Amino acid sequence: MEAPVTAIILLVAVVVIGVAAFGLTSAVVGYQQSLVQQQHEADQLSAEVELLAGPLIHHGNGYNITVLPYFFSQQYPSTVYLIVGTTNLSPSALPFLDPSQISPFSQVYQNGKSITNDQLAYKLLSSIYTVSGHQLNSGPIKAYVDSPSSPISQGIPITFQFNSIGKFVVIWVVAQLGSNYYMIGSYAESNSILIQVS
What's the gap between Cα 1 and its chain centre? Predict the structure, then answer.
């Protein structure tokens, strides 16, 4: 009598373990496929985005620059962020630079209104990835929202003001894809010349 009970218990245990293993494997594979799809979308977006940036303008005790990401097609992410700062490093180092290592701006304006401390205007991003999946930042970084709303209006110009300026103003364009954030464009400007780094 004990042998059939033991066999049934073993059979149930094997089935439960098999179902659990299948579920775990499916979840891991599904997550990996999702990441691959997001990286593919980020790579496509990086070919579609261009940054429109005004020249550096001396203003009072500092400098202003107005920036606007522009997408060539109607396929753009629902949420786009801008990270801006200054650095003395060469633009060639920009794709590998942790955004938290740049010198920050002092004020941010949209349509002439300060949005520097407006919690609806920015988000702290803790993980930003390149299109190849490399994580850029080691800590939270403040990114300002500039979301395309339609094919006609593809964002709103945002003006960043600096009290002092490094050799280059650097700008990252970040897109949210799913629950992850991808850097789809990086730029550097110096002497009113905009350099597209990636």
Answer: 64
